[in-house]
């Protein structure tokens, strides 16, 4: 044993001799390949004095192993013991059913499912044994796929959130809630952190349009902070003017696009898409998912509990652990900053009655903006209220001037799916992950829940100002409906700054029995009318 240890130590030292120059020089990006080729061209002396040479890729792997595990990681890995661990016939039958249900299931995935569902103990099933038994049953062939070698360029961001990548993936067919009996294709937008390979957020929608992309982008930043750079392909949605506006508002580097007809740098998100097809979309064949909400909940459970917590083959770390290791470099944005950045902007000209039109709906602003050019900022999914700006300064919020009937959301109809199961699945793996995620408390707030919390904060802020005026002014002066109407148009205001404005007004000799608008205008001037 001692001789073997000495031999392994000598091998590790010889390998360290090869990589020591690279570690000492720390070549900059763009020079690393040349340095590796230079070291690969040299002849080195082995543990017993024998000359040897190694390839640049081998040196690269040694550098990575040393940085992750030190000198100990440069030793040869111990070979597994000969022989195999037996599987019972019940386990073999269960594994065969898993493979027949979803042919795309890999050996590793079958073992994970068997262990998680209590069919086999941890470490009991060996890959080689499982492969041999599946092959005996005629189930050992690999799933065919189209080879893709155009996304194999090598680069890596230096820290978490340095570079985010995103792409659109074609998803499954689901029942259309607006047309009973019809099916509709779902599409997935997802964002990936280049450094850690962390799946930041992903969401399926029936429209692969700009609002769907922005919803995922915004939710990614709410969960994991602001990216330093974003790297996209040349799809029209990613090149939209509003995407450029968002990155400018949040201080993100201008958008980087892949070169046309050369998407190799986009390889990480392409690899993620392939992984999603094989390990998530394939599992839909054995699931009971029928609606878009169920699909999105299953995807988040799969991302949180499986993808982000599995050892990545390139980094040899779990994506969530690798991202947390660089947490000190993450920049965060508050909810109000994100809300403003994602508002759409349009320029409009009001008529003599201060009315303007937006997407066929008329709005009316204050009389002082009649026959003026204004900027309208809005959420395209919530046109029941828009914000009016003049010369970059917030003026007020306005609602539709004419009341119009909006289309009521139709109740989702649960009909047949594009994937029909003739019998109860052996393992609904996605359903199992959803249940585990719920038990662990990984409940993802929906956009509706986030909006509800924002509305509650707004009500509390308005109520604080109403209480301040009620307690400060004479009862005959205080007019609560007028106060709330003013806050709806120009608020919310910070209660402390509102109190300062009233105190300053009273110190200057202002009486407490003037019209309510005098006090509201004083508060507005002091708070500068910035929305929150």
Helix proportion: 40-55%
In one word, what is the shape? elongated
Order of H and E elements: HHEEHHHHEEEHEHEHHHHEEEEEEHHHHH
Average pLDDT rating: 83
Named CATH architecture of the largest domain = 2-Layer Sandwich
Widest beta sheet: strand line-up: 5-4-3-6-7
Instruction: Specify the structural class.
Output: alpha+beta
Cα distance spanning the termini:
69 Å
Find the count of extended strands (DSSP E, 2+ residues). Answer: 13
* CATH topology group of the largest domain: Nucleotidyltransferase, domain 5
User: Can you tell me the CATH superfamily of the largest domain?
Assistant: Ribonuclease H-like superfamily/Ribonuclease H
CATH classification class of the largest domain: Alpha Beta
Show unreliable segments. 403-409, 413-421
Question: What kind of assembly state do the chains in view correspond to?
Answer: single chain
Main beta-sheet strand count, sense and barrel state: 5 strands, mixed
* Percentage of residues in strands: 5-15%
Radius of gyration from CA coordinates: 30 Å
Task: Provide the number of structural domains.
Answer: 5
- What's the tally of helices? 17
